[in-house]
Design brief:
With 179 residues, this protein is mostly beta strands. The chain has no helices and 15 strands. The strands form 4 sheets. Strands 4, 5, 6, 7 and 8 form a 5-stranded antiparallel β-sheet that branches. It has a 4-stranded antiparallel β-sheet with strand order 9-10-11-12, with no helix packed on it. A 3-stranded antiparallel β-sheet has the order 1-2-3, with no helix packed on it. A hairpin with a 2-residue loop joins strand 1 and strand 2. The relative contact order is 0.13.
């Protein structure tokens, strides 16, 4: 269970019988946007937007409920929208994170980055669909060995589902099922 309160994000572990533990503060930062949380291995990844260094950007870190990870907060994007929300999934070795952002004030583009369990970005962010000029927003990521998969909204009217390779590379859309 999580809650964003002004300038902090809190989480509580809840047992299967519904008993909640005392809240743990996960993040404190100025002007926090909508958080996303995913559990993987022995820690959770927390992504949110804030105005760190004056720019609104997407930040991520990993933590246990007992405290922060050895890694620092990592900035994944500097053009993140305040009301946007990242999507996070654990693949057994790293967290896959997707988000969208407007590019040059234009149509939104969807991106993916890998973050290790210590909260460090692995490599660079990449566009989910590299050669796509149409807007692709609100990506939601999942994992089914050996690939990531994602769904995103295209042009505010269509939901498109795709597979991505184990490193997040775009793969062609799945063919239409027979009718």
């Amino acid at each position: 269970v999580w809650r964003a309160r002004g300038a902090s994000i809190e989480a509580r572990a809840v047992s299967r019988d519904g008993v909640a533990e005392a809240p743990t503060t996960l993040v404190e930062a100025p002007e926090i946007g909508r958080p996303s949380i995913a559990w993987g291995g022995d820690r959770m990844a927390v992504a949110w937007s804030d105005r760190r260094n004056g720019d609104l950007g997407l930040q991520i870190t990993t933590r246990t409920l007992a405290g922060p990870s050895p890694g620092d907060v990592q900035r994944l994007s500097v053009r993140f929208e305040r009301d946007a929300r990242a999507s996070i999934v654990w693949d057994g070795a790293a967290f896959g994170v997707t988000w969208w952002e407007p590019v040059g004030g234009g149509a939104p583009r969807s991106y993916m980055a890998l973050v290790d369990r210590a909260g460090r970005r692995m490599g660079t962010s990449m566009r989910l669909v590299p050669n796509d000029d149409a807007s692709l927003a609100l990506p939601v990521i999942g994992w089914e060995r050996p690939d990531y998969f994602f769904a995103a909204v295209r042009g505010a009217t269509t939901v498109e589902a795709r597979r991505a390779g184990p490193r997040g590379c775009d793969m062609p859309p799945a063919p239409e099922p027979p009718r």
